[in-house]
Write a structure and sequence with these properties.
One of its GO terms (biological process) is regulation of DNA-templated transcription. This is Transcriptional regulator. InterPro entries: Sig_transdc_resp-reg_C-effctor, WH-like_DNA-bd_sf. One of its GO terms (molecular function) is DNA binding. By secondary structure, the protein is mainly α. It has two domains: about 45 residues; about 35 residues, no CATH class. The chain contains five helices and two strands. Strands 1-2 form a two-stranded antiparallel ribbon. A hairpin with a 6-residue loop joins strand 1 and strand 2.
Length: about 110
């Protein structure tokens, strides 16, 4: 009987707010810069580095807002990659290419 009374009282109290502090980053101010850097072909890591943001924070923001890759692909056999040498984003002509064209030219 006592338990039912406690349940009834807890149902009457409003739920606590989920967010107790304001967000640390103003995403509305950062969003144009993110779009510009990703349009230039910067990877997520390079974009986070240039903005001074943790990479996991930026990845979570992009995933939450369903922002995908900025580089368009022309053919179905193309693959989006990040260069293993210089860490820039590029579209590879095959799935086994891991170096961007500039680094591939430099090493060959």
């Amino acid at each position: 009987m006592k338990h039912a009374h406690e349940v009834a009282q807890s149902a009457q109290t409003p739920p606590a707010p989920r967010r107790t502090r304001p967000p640390r980053l103003d995403w509305t101010a950062i969003a144009p810069t993110i779009a510009q850097l990703r349009g230039q072909g910067c990877s997520t890591r390079e974009t986070a580095r240039r903005l001074g943001v943790n990479i996991k924070t930026l990845e979570a923001h992009l995933r939450r807002h369903r922002i995908r890759h900025a580089i368009p692909m022309d053919r179905p056999d193309q693959v989006r990659r990040t260069c293993l040498n210089c860490d820039t984003a590029f579209v590879a002509d095959g799935r086994f290419l891991r170096l961007c064209p500039e680094c591939r030219a430099m090493f060959s």
